[in-house]
Design brief:
Helices cover about 60% and strands about 0% of the residues. The protein has eight helices and no strands. The chain has helices at about 20-35, 40-50, 70-85, 85-95, 110-120, 130-145, 150-165, 165-170. Helix 1 packs parallel to helix 3 (about 70-85). It starts with 18 loop residues before the first helix and ends with a helix.
Length: about 170
């Protein structure tokens, strides 16, 4: 585990919370930050691992933008995949959007969320597509109160069916 990260633990020593969900929340934040600051993904990953991930003594969840329960390898994998494959993933996301709402017109946080989810859906060894979509819907509801989660759900369903058609073949 990275230096400085102190996951909260229950009395039996097990981590509390949902670290994989925390990884996704942190990945969305990191992708947003990388885009806004025009920083490299490696720079942002290093900053997050040093300063934004893990609990600080005496603080609660998400204090000062912190994500306390994080599976750091998953966080890193999502940010790297979304950044390295953005040129491939953005056209797939764009095709799932309407002409009225191109990818660049979307809120920057929503764009980061869609990129993170698409990156995870493109991972052959990742969790099932429906799990990925459900996880990112939880994340979307944490960031948005309006229609954005519904839009994200529709886009991710379309993207998942394109990237992982075998998982949806039985339901077609």
């Amino acid at each position: 585990m990275a230096e400085g990260i102190k996951p909260r633990r229950s009395q039996n020593g097990r981590p509390l919370g949902r670290p994989r969900t925390g990884s996704r929340v942190a990945a969305v934040q990191a992708l947003f930050q990388a885009e806004q600051a025009q920083a490299s993904p490696e720079t942002v990953i290093a900053e997050f691992v040093r300063h934004r991930l893990g609990a600080l003594d005496g603080t609660g969840d998400f204090e000062d933008g912190r994500v306390t329960d994080v599976h750091v390898p998953l966080f890193t994998q999502i940010v790297r995949a979304a950044s390295l494959h953005q040129e491939t993933l953005d056209p797939i996301l764009s095709a799932a959007l309407t002409e009225d709402w191109p990818l660049q017109r979307l809120d920057a946080v929503l764009r980061a969320l869609l990129r993170a989810a698409a990156a995870e859906l493109s991972m052959a060894d990742g969790p099932p597509a429906k799990v990925v979509i459900n996880e990112y819907m939880d994340v979307a509801h944490g960031f948005f109160d309006g229609e954005e989660p519904r839009m994200a759900n529709g886009v991710l369903d379309t993207v998942a069916r394109q990237l992982r058609p075998a998982e949806f073949a039985a339901t077609a």
